[in-house]
Write a structure and sequence with these properties.
The structure holds two protein chains of two kinds. Chain A is α+β, with helices and mostly antiparallel strands. Helices cover 38% and strands 25% of the residues of chain A. In chain A, strands 8-7-6-11-10-9 form a six-stranded antiparallel sheet, with helices on both faces. In chain A, strands 1-2-3-5-4 form a five-stranded antiparallel sheet, covered by helices on one side. Chain A starts with a strand and ends with a strand. Chain B is of the alpha/beta class. Chain B has one domain: Transcription Regulator spoIIAA (2-Layer Sandwich). Helices cover 44% and strands 30% of the residues of chain B. In chain B, helix 3 links the parallel strand 5 and strand 6. Chain B is globular. Classes of the chains: A alpha+beta, B alpha/beta. The interface between A and B is medium-sized, with 18 and 13 residues.
Amino acid sequence: MTSLGELRLQATKDNIRTLAHFIQGVGERLHLTEKTQFDIDLAIEEAAVNIVSHAYPGDMMGDMVIRAEVDEEMLRITLTDWGIPLDPKDVPEFDRHTPIELRIDGGMGLHFIRSLMDEVHRQATPLGEPNTLTLRKRIERLQPGSQIPSVVRELNAMLSISRILSTGVSLDELLNHIINTLVEVIDAERGTLYLVDEAKQELFSRVLLEDKDVLEEIRVKIGEGIAGYVAETGTTLNIRHAYKDPRFQKTFDQITGFESETVLTVPMFNNQQKIIGVVQLLNKNGGDFSSRDERLLGAMSSQAAISIENARLYEQEMQQKLIEKELETARAIQRSFLPYVLPQHDHWDVAAFWQPMRDVGGDFYDFHMLPDGRLAVVIADVSGKGVPAAMFMALSVTVLRFAMSLDFAPADLLQRANQLIIADQQSRMFATVFVCYIDLETGEIQYGSAGHNPPYLYASQHGQCELLTTQGVALGVFPSATYGEDSTTLQQGDVLVLYTDGITEVIDKNEMEFGEERLNQLICTSAHLTAQALCDLIVKTITEFSHQRGFDDETLVVIKRR
Amino acid sequence: MNITEQAQGDVTIFKIDGRVDTAGAVDLDLALHTAVAEDKYKMVLDLGEMRYISSAGLRTLADILTRNQENDGDLKLAAVNPKILRILQIIGFDQFFTIYDDVAGAVASF
């Protein structure tokens, strides 16, 4: 292997440029083809950025060394640093499914490098010892005599697009940066970056240079105009006289007051060779867009496509995380509305079960001590599921508790709660509610219902269940609604079972409902159990019965007088 | 789910077949509200073939009932099957909707 040189520098951002110059010099000596030079420059810049940012993060200082060697067909470049090693174990083969943060932090750079070079080998050692990155590339040399154009400026611009990803910018900022860079590098007057809207089969652009007053969203049908043509066919169009081309649409010039003359339009391909957008540059300074401009813009646009896709993925993932976080929070809030502790009393045995269908549900139950010492028990079922139902539930709980604290009897309570709920929300949801007040000394209960499934009262004396029914419509529907109420007494050994229809509407594989009859039977045969044991048994029975759980919120409250 | 509309004098009859689930409720909502926008406040729902109605569907019925009654009309229910009837009774809608055995009876009552 012949040594082509070695350079030792402090690992700073400015010195990345010096490294780039070194490698360009190496390339010129070897008469590399433009493509090879391009790839190597890109790989080295990525590697250097990794060292500056990650090997020596923050204020940490240190050196980096680049060494280049060549034999017949193989160029070997080694980069060495003495900083924090990027553990190869932490960065496996670039995986689309790796969380985007990992990708951005270290994986992206190495992925680029791997795709540009033929061999990449990284050796890491503990802090203080040298870390080495070895890159090998089979080189293609130009035929003697051909020109090697300078690509320094273009490459630095190109690389800045890939680098910007690691600073976690938003998609819009990224798009802005990309188009500004492309316009500058290719040396045009202005440019537009269009993205494909798959659903509508249109191109849209949110980025316009210069005239900040004219920052409109432009939409173009795929197939229409020059940009639409390029998006549809995937071919590059280099037009010298815009107004002479029948495909050119004058409307945008008319809006912006700009006069297009030369127009270069290239498709943006992602890694799967799918067209995700189009880049259009207008009016090359000092002449026409050359074929070199076409090639360069094409390459850079595809580079940009990758950045854009990653930024989109990043945004999607962030949004997904936000949604999950919200649901978690909503559930926690909702759970906090339910009583933490079930009432304890010598003569009363209380149990409850609450199972929302989606993370957040609309069913709830509540226990509340009334001013006169009675225990109020509420069970409710809010129409709908998920976060909206949970919020409606929170409102309903609050309203009911408030009204209960004002000493209203069940009928009055429900009437006022109904009016408050209607007054206070615009949603189309409603709630069915059953409420009862239990005198813990005498066992007398006073109850009312707003459209809720009548609870079962098992009378141990008769060995049978009766339904506690009263008249009343669900809350939140009809402002003029009035409610009935009734009362009865729980004797020793009696059991009260309150439930929501998620319990009785569980279905088996023949689409048969569990139903009220079965529940009735189950209670009658198991009323001797403790409240908790009965509650568990009911849940177990419907679980075994059912073919499909998770269909509706399920809530159960069992109260037994000992 | 299918909805068919028919006029008999100044009464509009909507026949609803199938399941009014959350998606179906949207269609039902649209159909009924369109009629309301055309000042058709006298409605009969033929529910003979309606097998199920979701809470969203119930909501729609309640809203249209209120609207119609505010305009001297009504929303009457006809041919309701026992299962649906029970739901309407439990939830208390039977106190607000008049329910008829058949469509003819409902139409005649206007």
